[in-house]
Amino acid sequence: MRTRTVQLSQKLSALLVATSLVTPAAMAQAPAKVDGKSTVSTSAGNPCAPGNPCAPGGEKKKKKKRTGSDNPCAPANPCAPGR
Amino acid sequence: MRTGQPLRARPLNLGASGNTAMAAATLHHWAEQAVAIPLAYAQRGQPLALVALAGARHFEPLRHYPVRDMVDPLHGTRAYYHSHDAMARWGNAEPAEHGHFHLFWDGAHPGTHVHLAALSLDARGQPLRWFATNRWVTAGRWVDAAALVRRLPTFQLQVRGRLAPLARWLTAMVQLFADELAALLHERDAALAAASRGRSRRSVWADRRIEVLAHTDAALAPRLQRLGLLGPAG
Q1: Nearest Cα residue to B120 out of B138, B154, B91, B95
Q2: Hey, is B184 helix, strand or coil?
Q3: What is the average pLDDT score of chain A?
Q4: Between chain A's N and C termini, which has fewer beta carbons within 10 Å?
Q5: Is the pLDDT of residue B219 over 50?
Q6: What is the three-class DSSP state of B126?
Q7: Minimal C-alpha gap between A64 and chain B (Å)
Q8: What is the spatial distance between Cα B162 and Cα B54, in angstroms, rounded to a whole number?
């Protein structure tokens, strides 16, 4: 127990020294304004709510089937010129 | 001040000897994690406040780091780091807050998450303070302090990848500061009760003038000293 206490004290001292030597992280900066309006999303309702509570992590939005622009002559494209 | 007058939580007088919930060996384990993880980063020139940005090149107010939060589906927990309104919240207190973590339990359904507390860091990554927020800040389900304190020993955040050490550090901090967090949460409820005199609790929960309900010190060295983990000369 005493050995662990001594080791912890030594590590803590090392941490205090190392921390005093690191370059401080840059503070938060709002991105450049566009048309005079900030581009930061303020989430005015609940600014500290979790990003997406309960959502499974890493889920990606399904891509919509691209039926039109890539293949302008496909039947699904209502704007295709008649043959 | 936008925050109203947050109460400063007084730690419960449990101390190391009275802490029956956690064996000394477990406490030592968390203490070692709480010290060794930031030490390893600092020795590589990375303050924890930088690590918390999860590799992002720019640190923008309110944006979550990481973008999708750190999520632990196994333990039903979540955390993220961000920054906003530090001056309005803490004034000119030195060192200045770089950002803060929010720690949650996820609920079974969207919008039923429970906020445990927030932990602020300075720009060198040193923990500054724990604080408990009003309901409008994080939304979600409000759980009274007594119930939250009962859940505290089970709080664990485990994630994979490069943020795994950071998640372990947050877990260690929660467990090391369990007594302080318990006191903080009770102070939060006391502040809410005081603010609710003459009006409904619901109106206080939505009161934008009250952001922080209680806060307490999160400095690591004094905490380890109070727990008797550093020895008399520590």
Answers
A1: B95
A2: helix
A3: 67
A4: C
A5: yes
A6: coil
A7: 22
A8: 8
Which carries the bigger pLDDT value, residue B2 or residue B197? Answer: B197
Is B221–A54 a contact, with Cβ atoms under 8 angstroms apart? no
Which of these, B15, B103, B221, lies nearest to A17 by C-alpha position? B221
User: In this complex, do B138 and A50 lie within 8 Å of one another by their Cβ atoms?
Assistant: yes
Give the A:B interface size as CB pairs under 8 Å: 161
Compute the nearest-CA separation of A32 from chain B (Å).
Answer: 11
Question: Residue written as tokens 């333990």?
Answer: B75
Q: What does residue A3 show for φ and ψ, rounded to 5 degrees?
A: -60, -45
Cα(B104)–Cα(B101) distance, integer angstroms: 10
Residue B60 with chain A: CB contacts under 8 Å: 28-31, 40
**B125-169 pLDDT tens trace:** 999 999 999 999 999 999 999 999 999 999 999 999 999 999 999
Q: Do B120 and B132 touch, CB atoms closer than 8 A?
A: no
A61 contacts in chain B (CB < 8 Å): none
CB B69 within 8 A of CB B78: yes
Name the residue among B24, B35, B64 with its Cβ closest to that of A12. B35
CA distance A80 to B131: 60
Query: How high is the mean pLDDT of chain B?
Result: 91
Instruction: Locate the chain B residue with the closest alpha carbon to A26.
Output: B123
Distance CA B124, CA B121 (A): 8
Nearest by Cα to B69 from B105, B120, B33: B105
